[in-house]
Structures
1.
Amino acid sequence: MAKKILLTGDRPSGPLHIGHYFGSLVNRLAMQDDYEPYIMVADVQALTDNFNQPEKVRENVLEVAMDNIAAGIDPKKSALFIQSQIPQIAELTVFFSNLVTVNTLKRNPTVKAEIAEKRDLFGSEGESVTYGFLGYPVSQAADITIVRADIVPVGEDQLPMLELTREIVEKFHHIYDCDIFPRPQAKLSDAPRIMGLDGSSKMSKSLNNAVYLKDNPEVTAEKIRAAKTDSGSSITYDPKNRPEISNLVMLYALIHNAKPEDAVKDLAGMNYVAFKEKLATDLNHYLAPLRAKRAELEAKPHYVKELLEMGRKRVLDKAEETISLVRSAMKINY
Ligand code: ATP
Ligand code: MG
């Protein structure tokens, strides 16, 4: 039986952090054998809010690719590719953009939160938001459907994007009287939203509140020590009332492959300082093999580029097949 298709990806807006690892990478690793996986470095999407910083996006393409490979993505199993190298995605985005209203995009809760975070770029009321940024969920629907993906391992912030993708797919099939795409489902991990170390609601590369996979042990320990906590002293897992300490307990649980409710029992009686030291030591231990592999890759950028080229070739055939089905359905197959 043919394997189901998996697509996911990351924006090259910075290197990957532990929120990505526990929020999305763990699932892509676990699913690598049983699915046909496509892992995209979403440079076109990163440019929607970094259009004035092309060097930053370019640099981070390799960073994100190395993070994925170091974490265990096997480029022989998973097609690792760069979004802009598949022009059929851009073409499909144009066709899909007719099927989505501007009001729907403006109501998307993730887009709304991101516009609010990017006041410098988009104005305090979002009055300068660009057409491209507002529309990135449409482009994301095209990323997913160009390989006709069944499943998309993501963090919680991406659920509205998956819902929109299913709406677009249904509308497309209905209007053009065809059945080309599966209805893609999100796959969430046990930690679908790791909070930032500054207490903000999401660890994010754009907010500088993260432990990066590539950080060295000293920097990691420093960041954990400085992580925001409440003024309490006991270590508990109570995300609703004590979100910051609970986020650290969650990280501790994830690296020990335990449930936070159980992991917290190990920590009884410890004060915040001692707990943070232990968390930093254990996190550094957990990430050590990944970091060693990453250091090897950093010394071989050409090899990483070759892997991306291998991925591009694998996606291209599939994308061409999808776009010709789309053109036929839309009666533009002249
Ligand atoms: P940016 O701020 O540029 O959007 P980001 O940190 O949100 O960066 P993305 O590249 O947008 O990272 O996200 C890649 C994947 O990681 C997505 O599936 C997203 O849902 C997931 N993810 C990102 N941040 C977290 C987090 N803090 N916790 C869990 N999952 C996350
Ligand atoms: Mg994001």
2.
Amino acid sequence: MPSEWREAPPGDFAVIGDPVAHSLSPRMHAAAFATRGESYSYEAIRVPPGEVAEAIARLRSLGYRGLNVTVPLKSEARMAMRTVGEFAARCDAVNTIRLEDLYGINTDGAGFLDTLPAFDRKSALILGAGGSARAIALALALDGYNLRIFNRTAERAISLVRELGIDAEVVDNPAPQDVQLILNATSASLHGESLPISFASAASGALAYDLVYGDTPFLRAARAAGLKTLDGKALLVAQGARSLEFWLGGVAPREAMMEAIR
Ligand code: NDP
């Protein structure tokens, strides 16, 4: 059961968010520590928006060494840091904190790139313009991808491109022609909803990627059209592995982490 931050037990690592009960991170990190022969604890702790700085100070005083931060606290967490990594500052989102020196970084962008195959042409269509789309769009742009972004609310996609200062085309139709990666960074799949996209015109060998865990309507439609697919567990493991390596060094056991949440 997740704790409320005011009643949190002493511990080593935790994920903070609201809600946080559904998080797979405690199970995934417990498997990582066990595989590495370490006996650290990893809790799920609920922190409501507006209480992040106070909660971080409390967890630090309880002896915690590191935190992961999930929705909707990543921007607020950035404000509570003494030092922020360059990528986290640019996308205004901290997902990993070292408490000793209040150093915050973002492992979502690099973690996402870790999960991609080597494409012959770096081109992507991103569906969505929320917090996750933001970090991933920045990572893809910095990695040299040609980007198209479609969002239900177009103004949000336009603001995302402007605020990140990246080169990306905001489109009014999610047509997947000529791209190697089609990323669903919306929360539509969370509610079992489909998006208005047809995969019939997608390039052969394209990858459909949904940030939501498991088999979603988006991934089923892509698979039916012959595309390769990946779900959000790949990113969960990749960003978590990078967090663990930031806190403790060494190499995180990605396969054991994936096995624990499969
Ligand atoms: P946000 O709430 O910041 O953004 C939600 C996005 O989804 C917006 O672009 C919104 O469009 C769009 N959207 C929501 N419902 C629909 C719909 N029915 N049809 C079309 N578009 C829709 O969410 P996040 O960016 O934080 O997260 C997005 C998803 O990614 C979530 O499902 C989350 O669970 C998942 N996620 C997975 C992670 C992982 O490790 N695998 C990590 C982080 C997130 P609009 O602007 O028009 O409202």
